[in-house]
Write a structure and sequence with these properties.
Blueprint: H1 2-15, H2 24-45, H3 51-57, H4 59-91, H5 97-130
Length: 131
């Protein structure tokens, strides 16, 4: 049963690369990257440490940082879930909410997590040189 579920999930996720609404696979990470760079620059101006590093190493800040990151990408996550639901209705003729959430996290939150700290480091270096 679990094996069949995982096989279907893997096949469904792989099939999203081609087909209707495939442009969202570029647009959603792009919007998340823009938001991450904007937040990373804000972090650098406020002299905060890199986001992802602090998320993993500072347990006391983790909850606040996760809430902040989710609020930054909430609209992108919501749009990603909605677009994936439309894709599922068009192609699969059914909605799998778990799959839609997985796709939304991959397309929106993962790029945000990876790029916010990088943007912070780059902006911090630039701010130091200008100071």
């Amino acid at each position: 049963m679990i094996g069949e579920l995982l096989a279907r999930l893997g096949e469904d996720l792989a099939n999203r690369i081609s087909g209707p609404l495939s442009l969202r696979l570029l647009l959603q990470p792009g919007v998340a990257a823009f938001l991450a760079v904007r937040a990373g620059m804000r972090d650098a101006r406020e002299r905060r440490p890199p986001y992802f590093q602090t998320l993993w190493t500072n347990r006391s800040q983790r909850g606040r940082l996760l809430r902040e990151g989710l609020s930054d990408v909430a609209k992108v996550l919501g749009l990603a879930v909605a677009l994936d639901a439309v894709y599922q209705l068009l192609v699969l003729h059914w909605i799998y909410p778990g799959e839609a959430l997985i796709v939304a996290l991959i397309l929106a939150f993962v790029p945000y997590l990876l790029l916010r700290g990088v943007a912070n480091r780059v902006a911090r270096g630039r701010y130091r040189r200008n100071a």
